[in-house]
């Protein structure tokens, strides 16, 4: 099976590398050609346009930043849709709006092209370790066709439902995760005001009902005040923009997510968008330049 | 070592049972004498007053509901302080205000009596399985003296700091846990509005960065709509009252905890205080009687 890959960032680069390692013939395209250098040296074929990439591939995987990016890759000038033969599949692993995923699936279906929204969770660490959680939305038959590829990238591949359902699950994931980071920050801030050792609090809590991946990883960063590493907060800010707009459209009350969204706005205003989301602790501390 | 135990509720009854099973001589007292029947049948000695209990024990463990309850047990009429010999220890495993824990420790210290605040996490299930997380505040020497007892009740025993520090850790625990329940409820509510299968969403998320004890246990209850079981929401409501008052006194901003506190208020107003805290999902659904 000939594969294409677009989106060679912190997540995509190791993912594309795993597919090469597994022996797949891989074509790549990037807006910035220098992003393809490392993979080209390992045997990936570099294409001049997205359409050219699609023309030589049965399956194209994309993992980029925004809904608009994915739409442009797919249906913009020289987009994937111009190159795909009927029966080809676009697997989008970006985090985008569920409605956009549904729209793209419908437009592809008119041309006999398959679609899967398959956003991921686990961050760069899981991308490098091929241990991502993958939340798939689309037709079951399409998922089964590409499942061997996804199994190279992730450990838990769940078919959540029809097109867009993967993105709904990802929105739920981001909401739960970033709210947990905010709650962890509030807990640390309260403990410090009491003069209590934060490392001891985190250690104690990991044994009980408050235990979570976030407390384990982000809690540790807060204790160590290592705000530079990890996931860039601007990406979570983008995700909250999407999910709160979605909630508004649907009339769904999300009171705590809305509040966390405001804290992310304050984080961005303070200039910490490229730092780790554990910087939500710094927002509470009001160290921000005013 | 002669032990006393007060607070034979859903948590305390199995805990006292574990101490009996371990071969300790156990005395009990309860406001409602019928609460002692089962333990008395297993060999526990029933005392007429808290003071009488304290007079025959080197260590007394209490696990009751409120700060006022603990203060009354300790320094009210016929309280523990009247009975304790110097060198005795009061281990309070209730969830109370950190300031009350510090006050009681200081008052006991004047009489040569030891104190440990040692609140727990893990719920009834962990109490029955002797797998509680225990967060201890007080002098290290006092903790070491009672550690063999705590090891009969729990799996992770952490010395967080001085008197009150155990309660600070517990406040952090409750804040993180109940915020996670609220975030889980919001995620489920959003997924349902999208017509996406909640069980699949929960399963997908358990493999990634949003994984937590809360998503595992309370998420399952929300999917199954089993709101009757588990931890009574009124207890979390009480805990949030404490921690938000504490934050107000200290000038610590807790924006998301404050919002979750409002959702707990709505839950109480709807009459679900004796149901599980996963009822926060029902608050979002606005099924409450108005």
TrEMBL record, chains A, B:
<dbReference type="InterPro" id="IPR006115">
    <property type="entry name" value="6PGDH_NADP-bd"/>
</dbReference>
<protein>
    <submittedName>
        <fullName>NAD(P)-dependent oxidoreductase</fullName>
    </submittedName>
</protein>
<comment type="similarity">
    <text>Belongs to the HIBADH-related family.</text>
</comment>
<keyword id="KW-0560">Oxidoreductase</keyword>
<dbReference type="Pfam" id="PF03446">
    <property type="entry name" value="NAD_binding_2"/>
</dbReference>
<dbReference type="Pfam" id="PF14833">
    <property type="entry name" value="NAD_binding_11"/>
</dbReference>
<dbReference type="InterPro" id="IPR029154">
    <property type="entry name" value="HIBADH-like_NADP-bd"/>
</dbReference>
<dbReference type="InterPro" id="IPR015815">
    <property type="entry name" value="HIBADH-related"/>
</dbReference>
<dbReference type="InterPro" id="IPR036291">
    <property type="entry name" value="NAD(P)-bd_dom_sf"/>
</dbReference>
<dbReference type="InterPro" id="IPR013328">
    <property type="entry name" value="6PGD_dom2"/>
</dbReference>
<feature type="domain" description="6-phosphogluconate dehydrogenase NADP-binding">
    <location>
        <begin position="2"/>
        <end position="161"/>
    </location>
</feature>
<feature type="domain" description="3-hydroxyisobutyrate dehydrogenase-like NAD-binding">
    <location>
        <begin position="164"/>
        <end position="284"/>
    </location>
</feature>
<dbReference type="InterPro" id="IPR008927">
    <property type="entry name" value="6-PGluconate_DH-like_C_sf"/>
</dbReference>
<keyword id="KW-0520">NAD</keyword>
<dbReference type="InterPro" id="IPR002204">
    <property type="entry name" value="3-OH-isobutyrate_DH-rel_CS"/>
</dbReference>
């Amino acid at each position: 099976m000939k594969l294409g890959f677009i989106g060679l960032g912190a997540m995509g680069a190791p993912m594309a590398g795993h597919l090469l390692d597994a022996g797949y013939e891989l074509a790549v395209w990037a807006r910035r050609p220098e992003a393809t250098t490392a993979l080209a040296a390992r045997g990936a074929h570099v294409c001049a346009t997205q359409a050219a990439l699609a023309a030589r591939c049965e399956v194209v995987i994309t993992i980029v930043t925004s809904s608009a990016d994915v739409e442009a890759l797919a249906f913009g000038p020289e987009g994937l849709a111009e190159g795909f033969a009927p029966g080809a599949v676009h697997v989008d692993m970006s985090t985008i709006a569920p409605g956009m995923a549904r729209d793209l699936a419908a437009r592809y279906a008119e041309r006999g092209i398959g679609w899967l929204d398959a956003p991921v969770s686990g961050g760069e660490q899981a991308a490098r370790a091929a241990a991502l959680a993958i939340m798939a939305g689309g037709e079951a038959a399409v998922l089964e066709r590409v499942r061997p590829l996804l199994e190279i990238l992730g450990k838990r591949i769940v078919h959540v439902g029809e097109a867009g359902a993967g993105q709904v699950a990802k929105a739920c994931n981001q909401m739960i995760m970033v709210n947990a980071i905010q709650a962890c920050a509030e807990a640390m801030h309260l403990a410090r005001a009491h003069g209590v050792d934060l490392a001891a609090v985190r250690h104690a809590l990991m044994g009980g009902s408050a235990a979570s991946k976030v407390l384990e990883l982000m809690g540790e960063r807060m204790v160590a005040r290592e705000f530079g590493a990890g996931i860039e907060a601007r990406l979570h800010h983008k995700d909250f923009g999407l999910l709160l707009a979605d909630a508004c459209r649907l009339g769904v009350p999300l009171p705590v997510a809305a509040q966390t969204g405001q804290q992310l706005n304050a984080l961005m205003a303070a200039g910490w968008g490229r730092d780790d989301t554990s910087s939500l602790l710094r927002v509470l501390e009001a160290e921000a330049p005013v």
